[in-house]
């Protein structure tokens, strides 16, 4: 396929086109089509942006109707009917049923814009600079967010010192027997630990880019308790695993915690349109009018599809229940796959429809499986410090049949890459297969 124009004109910084070197032309539901008409099952979902699939017909209809009546497209942060309906819907569908009170701030359109605002607000509220962030955490690549992002590849690209952040071990980082929340507690309790008093802790409940590392509910509750005891704000960055990905709209709900600040983006608009927001407890709203600005705060087209997504998928439990059913299916499939290759050292971790097939850190196995799967028509990315985790991230709306076909491709790709290492039990799929 002819990619010459991209090579000639686009910066070396481009990334995903290298993993998926075709020109994508159309997309529908969980399928992508390249210019040659080849079909791909999407197990990547725009890194968590397409929870409701590509060109979701209900959202598209709403968007086309809105454009057809000359609804306002750009309005800075002025009041518009689209924004009004989004706010009403967010309150009615998400906040009221949970008995929550949060103030919303619309930031620039991409995830890192929300994180920047959240960190700024936390620092202002507490009058302190330091932020606690976690090993393998990813929060974006603009300066403030990047300072809280652990990955050295991104940090090195900053070209300046990244400070005012202290990294501590995420849940499970030191192995199953070390309680990393207790470690943080020790640092906080000890005035001579060297830890500057933090304004906030920023955490992902499942680290999407960091390798599908899953924090236990218990650990998240410990973290909340620590925040309360030490007068720090708890920021949950729900940009990748929020909006239903883990089987509830907010990924932290089952932990029973109530973060002070939550960042949302990616699948928030539901349609792949850029949109970000920060939710925070009303008493934290110390912003002066206009103190945090931006031309594209509040994308009206995104308000329209976001409100429709909430109305279509989140007024009952049915969608979340479906996600958890599909989680079982994926999980069983991957566990059986891992079991089939005992010598390969594979394992599975994840929550909801973000599931990782973990391969050994060395050897590039996950990348080789992903490349093979792409050849066979599945788009899937790897994550983790060594790109060692195959991240299965289908749309939440994916049909079972496509989900199983995609998993079959993964299985076949793994089998081809691992060759004779299997124990011959690859077809033992615990009744999950039809
Ligand atoms: N936070 C998390 C948890 C993310 O996964 C990402 C992106 O992957 C971001 C922030 C940054 O979002 P964006 O790439 O839209 O700036």
UniProtKB/TrEMBL annotation:
Its cofactor is: pyridoxal 5'-phosphate
Output the InterPro entries linked to this UniProt entry.
Aminotrans_3 (IPR005814), Aminotrans_3_PPA_site (IPR049704), Dat (IPR004637), Ectoine_EctB (IPR012773), PyrdxlP-dep_Trfase (IPR015424), PyrdxlP-dep_Trfase_major (IPR015421), PyrdxlP-dep_Trfase_small (IPR015422)
Task: Supply the Gene3D superfamilies for this chain.
Answer: Aspartate Aminotransferase, domain 1, Type I PLP-dependent aspartate aminotransferase-like (Major domain)
**GO terms under biological process:** ectoine biosynthetic process
Major enzyme class: transferase
Sorted keywords for this record are: Aminotransferase, Pyridoxal phosphate, Transferase
The UniProt family comment states:
Belongs to the class-III pyridoxal-phosphate-dependent aminotransferase family.
Query: Which GO molecular function terms does the record list?
Result: diaminobutyrate-2-oxoglutarate transaminase activity; diaminobutyrate-pyruvate transaminase activity; pyridoxal phosphate binding
> What lineage is on file?
Bacteria, Pseudomonadati, Pseudomonadota, Betaproteobacteria, Burkholderiales
What protein name applies here? Diaminobutyrate--2-oxoglutarate transaminase
NCBIfam families, from UniProt? dat (TIGR00709), ectoine_ectB (TIGR02407), PRK09264.1 (NF006733)
The EC code for this enzyme is 2.6.1.76
Per the record, the pathway is: Amine and polyamine biosynthesis; ectoine biosynthesis; L-ectoine from L-aspartate 4-semialdehyde: step 1/3
Keyword Transferase among record annotations = yes
């Amino acid at each position: 396929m002819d990619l010459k124009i991209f090579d000639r004109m686009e910066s070396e910084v481009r990334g995903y086109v290298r993993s998926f070197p075709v020109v994508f032309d159309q997309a529908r539901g969980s399928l992508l089509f390249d210019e040659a008409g080849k079909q791909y099952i999407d197990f990547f979902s725009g890194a968590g942006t397409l929870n409701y699939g590509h060109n979701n017909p209900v959202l598209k209809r709403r968007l086309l109707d809105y454009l057809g009546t000359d609804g306002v497209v750009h309005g800075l942060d002025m009041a518009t009917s689209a924004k009004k309906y989004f706010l009403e819907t967010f309150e009615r569908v998400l906040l009221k049923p949970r008995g929550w009170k949060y103030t919303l701030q619309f930031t620039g359109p991409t995830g890192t814009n929300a994180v920047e605002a959240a960190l700024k607000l936390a620092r202002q509220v507490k009058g302190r600079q330091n932020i606690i962030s976690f090993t393998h955490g990813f929060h974006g690549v603009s300066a403030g967010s990047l300072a809280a992002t652990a990955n050295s590849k991104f940090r090195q690209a900053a070209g300046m010192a990244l400070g005012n952040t202290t990294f501590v071990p995420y849940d499970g980082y030191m192995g199953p027997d070390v309680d990393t929340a207790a470690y943080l507690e020790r640092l906080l309790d000890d005035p001579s630990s060297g830890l500057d008093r933090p304004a906030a802790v920023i955490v992902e409940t499942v680290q999407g880019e960091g390798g599908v590392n899953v924090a236990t509910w218990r650990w998240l509750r410990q973290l909340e308790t620590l925040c309360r005891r030490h007068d720090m704000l708890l920021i949950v960055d729900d940009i990748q695993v929020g909006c239903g990905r883990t089987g509830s709209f907010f990924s932290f709900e089952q932990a029973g915690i109530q973060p002070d600040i939550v960042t949302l983006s990616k699948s928030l608009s539901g349609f792949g349109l850029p949109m970000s927001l920060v939710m925070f407890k009303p008493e934290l709203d110390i912003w002066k009018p206009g103190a945090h600005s931006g031309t594209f705060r509040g994308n009206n087209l995104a308000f329209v599809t976001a409100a429709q997504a909430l109305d279509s998928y989140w007024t009952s439990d049915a969608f979340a229940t479906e996600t958890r059913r599909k989680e079982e299916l994926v999980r069983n499939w991957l566990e059986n796959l891992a079991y089939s290759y005992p010598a390969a050292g594979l394992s599975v971790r994840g929550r909801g429809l973000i599931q990782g097939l973990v391969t050994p850190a060395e050897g590039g196995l996950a990348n080789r499986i992903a490349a093979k799967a792409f050849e066979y028509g599945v788009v899937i990315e790897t994550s983790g410090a060594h790109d060692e985790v195959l991240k299965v991230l289908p749309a939440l709306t994916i049909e079972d049949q496509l989900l199983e076909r995609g998993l079959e491709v993964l299985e076949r790709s793994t089998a081809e890459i691992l060759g004779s290492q299997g124990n011959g039990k690859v077809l033992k799929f615990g009744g999950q297969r039809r």
